[in-house]
Amino acid sequence: MKNVFPNYKRYPIELVEGKGTNVKDAQGKTYLDFTSGIAVCNLGHVPDSVKTVVEAQLNKIWHTSNLYESSLEEEVAAKIAQNEAYQVFFCNSGTEANEAAIKLARKYTHKEKIISFTQSFHGRTFGSMSATGQSKIKKGFGKLVPGFEFATFNENSALEQIDEDTAAVFIELVQGEGGVNVADPTWVQAIQAKCEETGALLIVDEIQTGIGRTGTRYAFEQYAISPDMYTLAKGLANGFPIGAMIGKNKLAEAFGPGSHGSTFGGNKIALAAAKQVLTEIDQPAFLEELNIKAADFKKQLTALVKGLPGSEVRGKGFLLGIELPGPADEVIAACRENGLLVLSAGPNVLRILPPLTATEEEIAAALAILNDALLEKWMIQEG
């Protein structure tokens, strides 16, 4: 790829076809895709139901300016919010959604201090990068956006940093990029209580955890909290670019005309896909089946790595991570060679993100490949 910036470390394959959990590369080799495009294709690749509504929208209109009314935008916003307590701003990606949340938090509270957490990841634009608790993504870019402070994830010392000068607390309930670290519910509830006490806003980053990925529509539904804002992208339109920042009605006064915008936010094609995705995720049987499969998968993964020193399986739903006793990259390569695509989440953490529609047979096949890759890696080390 001579004419493309080398900012991605790419694996040596090109995926050219996909259906459900299966993808095919340019040489005709097939793989089980347990990355889902990094938690994007939650319904699998090219699901017929989404394809149908997108094709229908393609024959109507593709893009209109946000200077005009949009009934489709209102429909999807209502599906996202699920009640009248929240309003939605549409954009094109997770980092854009988080940028919108940062701007709104500061504009509404008239404060600058925003607290985020170590090992967090919120995006790569200047605001969202400044909110990210990983120094490796900030190197070489000069001064970042001021006002961000970092607290230790899952530690009560974080509560002491939330004060009357705090505009917002920005949190992932499962840190996907940071190692698949799961937030403790009691700690999260204490964070919300401290926010309410001091007037700070609670912002939940649901970019990777939302749209059924952790077993509920949104991860925060498992924590008995009511965030002031939450952000979505990735799985929302199953591969079409979309992001959304959702905020409580009280915040609307600070986001009037001219305060923020996006040329492509609310794109008709992406919205048509999102509407169908939400319709399917909201079927009770869908999430019930997902949670049964996910619990069994996690149980089998735990048994698989039982003999590895220092190993641990973490996560919720189909957002799972395995802490390994050594580098994850070699295991990822061995899995890929044998027809399974998985990811990392830090040097020693294997991240597994199957489509939410993956079958029991596909899960069993993935477990067999993963077992062989782990066995090969650590038998070689021990020998």
From TrEMBL:
Reaction catalysed by this enzyme: N(2)-acetyl-L-ornithine + 2-oxoglutarate = N-acetyl-L-glutamate 5-semialdehyde + L-glutamate
Subunit composition and interactions: Homodimer.
HAMAP family: ArgD_aminotrans_3 (MF_01107)
Additional free-text comment from the UniProt record: May also have succinyldiaminopimelate aminotransferase activity, thus carrying out the corresponding step in lysine biosynthesis.
Needed co-factor(s): pyridoxal 5'-phosphate
Gene label: argD
Location within or outside the cell: Cytoplasm
Modified residues (N6-(pyridoxal phosphate)lysine): 234
Primary location recorded for the protein, binned into one broad class: cytoplasm
PROSITE patterns registered for this protein in UniProt: AA_TRANSFER_CLASS_3 (PS00600)
Record keywords, A-Z: Amino-acid biosynthesis, Aminotransferase, Arginine biosynthesis, Cytoplasm, Pyridoxal phosphate, Transferase
A GO CC term attached to the entry: cytoplasm
Pathway: Amino-acid biosynthesis; L-arginine biosynthesis; N(2)-acetyl-L-ornithine from L-glutamate: step 4/4
Name of the protein this chain belongs to: Acetylornithine aminotransferase
Binding site for pyridoxal 5'-phosphate: 94-95, 121, 205-208, 263
GO process annotations (BP): L-arginine biosynthetic process
PANTHER family in UniProt: ACETYLORNITHINE AMINOTRANSFERASE, MITOCHONDRIAL, AMINOTRANSFERASE CLASS III
GO molecular function, one term: identical protein binding
Regions that span the bilayer: none
UniProt record similarity statement: Belongs to the class-III pyridoxal-phosphate-dependent aminotransferase family. ArgD subfamily.
Binding site for N(2)-acetyl-L-ornithine: 124, 262
EC numbers on record: 2.6.1.11
Record-linked InterPro entries: AcOrn/SuccOrn_fam, Aminotrans_3, Aminotrans_3_PPA_site, Class-III_PLP-dep_AT, PyrdxlP-dep_Trfase, PyrdxlP-dep_Trfase_major, PyrdxlP-dep_Trfase_small
Highest taxon in the source lineage: Bacteria
